[in-house]
Amino acid sequence: MSTGPLRIPLVTMKRIFILFLIATFPMANFAQSETSYYFDQNVGIAYVDFAFPGVSLLGGVRKVYPTTTTVNGAARAVIFESEIGLALPTGVTGKVGIGHLNEMTGNSTSVGVRIFPLHAYVQQAFGTRRCEREVSPRTKRRLEKRGRDRSHLRCSDWYFTMEVGGGGEWSFDSVALFSVGHRMFFN
Cβ(83)–Cβ(103) under 8 Å? Predict the structure, then answer.
């Protein structure tokens, strides 16, 4: 473990950014998908040799690919997510993942890789119910004008993430990371 602050060379940051772009490229190749953009904020605790707090503000994109799969009568869809943003103490962070979305509840489970600091993760998200209340006539007219209905009002979700890192420079000396966050979706 290093004794001073970790300094990441510009060349390394460029490589991380290129890896992120390569990982998100498959999102452009799938047809028949629905795209949602989101703003994500989260807080977490990393375990280095002790517990160390962190926060991040990210922007992301989620592609939803409908399938004919159902579990307990609920339609499931495949999701692909990627996000990038600012973080403390690392400066930047980004991650990509794939998973399943329960279209009835908005809940999702995904696995993926945080590109920097390098970690593998499992994430469980819970869709909020605030968009399921009665829609006002004004909102209903706006949706109809765009050819949509209330099912397109996926407002936000809360999520919990457990991650495992290598403990070296690429994972910012972290061997584990636990976080909770909130995403606000918009189109």
Answer: no
CA distance 27 to 67: 16
pLDDT reported for residue 179: 96
pLDDT in tens, 12-30: 666 666 665 555 555 444 4
How far apart are the C-alpha atoms of 93 and 107, rounded to whole Å? 24
List the CATH number of the domain containing 77: 2.40.160
Q: Is 21 helix (H, G, I), strand (E, B) or coil?
A: helix
For the entire predicted model, the pTM comes to 0.71
Domain count, the chain: 1
The dihedral formed by the CA atoms of 44, 46, 47 and 52, expressed in degrees to the nearest 10 = -90
Coil, strand or helix: which one is 36? strand
* C-alpha to C-alpha distance for 147 and 139, rounded to whole angstroms: 12
In the chain (187 residues long), the average pLDDT of successive 10-residue segments reads 56 62 51 82 93 94 80 78 93 93 86 92 86 68 78 79 88 91 86
Phi-psi category of residue 33: left, alpha or beta, with phi > 0 → left and psi -120 to 50 → alpha = beta
Q: Which of 101, 100, 106, 98 is nearest to 151 (CA)?
A: 106
**Domain containing residue 102:** 10-186
Nearest 10 degrees: Cα torsion 94, 97, 103, 109: -100
